[in-house]
Amino acid sequence: MRARHCTAAAVTAALAIGGLASAPASASPRAAVAPVVQTFPEASKRTYILGCGWNESRGGERAYYEHCATNTNVWIQVKRWPRSDYHRCVGPGRTNLDLDATGAWYDSTYRGGLCSHPGDTGP
Asked: Which residue, 11, 26, 50, sits at the end of a domain?
């Protein structure tokens, strides 16, 4: 998650720097700041895209899996410690995982990757 956060910050910084660098030399200081404000909606969209998949627990929040497609339910493999791993069907959006989850990812090899009923589990 730290890498995702750092990447989002780097994208935001790059957009901000690009916005400032593209201002003409004759522009006032206020004019140079305006493009930066316009780039934040783009940066927040990119941050959401980077949040797809496994998201580790932090700040008292449980670990979760973010399924970003809007028209499918998929099987993910959930790693747990010390208990055994398992598969879980997830629908679009956020699915909170077990307290002992240490990782999760889409598993296209398990029953073809697609599932019908979010919440179903398997070995």
From this structure: 50
